[in-house]
Amino acid sequence: MTDPLASPPDRRPGGRTARVRAQVLDAVRAELAERGHEGLTMEGVATRAGVHRATVYRRWRDVGGLLVDVITAAGEIDWQPPDTGSLPGDLTALNEEIQQSLVVQPSFALALMAASFHSEQAARAQTRLWTDRYAQCEVLVERAVERGELPAPHPDARSLLVAATAPIYHQLVLLRAGPDPRLPRRAARAAVLAAAAGAFRAPRQDREESDREQSDREESA
Amino acid sequence: MTDPLASPPDRRPGGRTARVRAQVLDAVRAELAERGHEGLTMEGVATRAGVHRATVYRRWRDVGGLLVDVITAAGEIDWQPPDTGSLPGDLTALNEEIQQSLVVQPSFALALMAASFHSEQAARAQTRLWTDRYAQCEVLVERAVERGELPAPHPDARSLLVAATAPIYHQLVLLRAGPDPRLPRRAARAAVLAAAAGAFRAPRQDREESDREQSDREESA
């Protein structure tokens, strides 16, 4: 949902503490992208950052601490969801941003996903970041409802967003297909068509419909 | 697309070579599920399998060789896609199978995905397996077309299958949400609604439509 490769806001003028954090996290991002999380060491980060090892150990404790902080820093970026004027346009732009973050070489986003398979701390931090980003994106669905692009009853925003974005991750991260320049638009379009046809209803509506289908079946039986 | 936890067909009557392979691959699956790929060693597998270390080194060479063979063995299972009589039913059953393989503790499917982030060999073997499974599932879409469930022009089967299944992997593998018993049905239903509304067209049709939209925009401009 984000391009975590982007640096957090430059806090260097904020004093030595902020400056050291920026240097260390820049080094973590560079080491992760170059060597993957398996090659990430406290010593390597300290050397690359030009910061005393003792400082790195004191403030981040271990590699897990570094991973959590680099993910936290990605969440501090002033990221804004796209605003193109239409839901298909917004979701396509979002998917293009995701695709870009996954195909760039080396991909920091991919390195973080790999790390989160092996560090519970990193996995939790990444889940928090993703939860925040999906929550931020709910405004795309709200704006589409206001513009009358989606009929009532309105879809559950998060389910729609997951459906629109999941194929990008699936193709690139799990199936390891090459990037398909049409996929961002196609996946966005499919999710919007499904929403317009009544998919992604809020769980309560969904349950009511399921009950209705059930009683229809019983009546026709 | 598969439950790789299932053992390959029992070839033990096939002689010593087949028996040793079955023992070694059972040990790889058990070690992977218990310790993850980081804990997978030639020695650990040999000990668990009760097979001489030299044999394991000679036939599989290294941990990458063991991973590739265990993925190859998963592809040798006589797996059949579901056949429930309707496309939403088939896709729901498929998603339930996928969800089950990911939430079972310990999950061999998850361990393999983690491994494929760190072994190019394992990644390639997994991509081949997934490609085969999606190809096998195209029959679900063909049957739906024959039953008249999907209007012409017919969707690209693989795109539809990826859209139907991707949310399960996304929620469970990447977002690390807990399993949602309604998700298999909801994701299946969304993909079918999108397909019925004209999503997932073959790339050529999609391009023609995009050209048409473009010329509509130019005319109305």
Write structural notes for this entry.
2 copies of one chain form a homodimer. By secondary structure, the first copy, chain A, is an all-alpha fold. Chain A folds into 2 domains: 65 residues, Tetracycline Repressor, domain 2, CATH 1.10.357; 134 residues, Tetracycline Repressor, domain 2 (Orthogonal Bundle), CATH 1.10.357. Helix content of chain A is 69%, strand content 0%. The first copy, chain A, contains 10 helices and no strands. In chain A, α1 crosses α2 and α1 packs across α6. The longest helix of chain A has 27 residues. Chain A is elongated, with a radius of gyration of 21 Å. The N terminus of chain A is likely disordered. Chains A and B meet through α6, α7, α8 and α9 of A and α6, α7, α8 and α9 of B.
Describe the structure concisely for a colleague.
2 copies of one chain form a homodimer. With 221 residues, chain A is mostly helical.
Helix and strand layout, with pairings?
The structure is a homodimer of 221-residue chains.
Chain A: H1 16-35, H2 42-49, H3 53-60, H4 63-76, H5 87-103, H6 108-116, H7 120-146, H8 157-174, H9 183-196, H10 203-220
Region (Disordered) (chains A, B): 198-221
DNA-binding region (chains A, B): 41-60
Protein name (chains A, B): TetR family transcriptional regulator
Overall pLDDT of chain A: 87
Query: Would you identify the CATH architecture of the largest domain in chain A?
Result: Orthogonal Bundle
- What gap, in angstroms, lies between the N and C termini of chain A? 46 Å
CATH class of the largest domain in chain A: Mainly Alpha
Report the count of strand segments of chain A: 0
- What share of the residues of chain A does DSSP label as strand, in percent? under 5%
Question: How many domains make up the coordinates of chain A?
Answer: 2
Q: Please give the count of helices of chain A.
A: 10
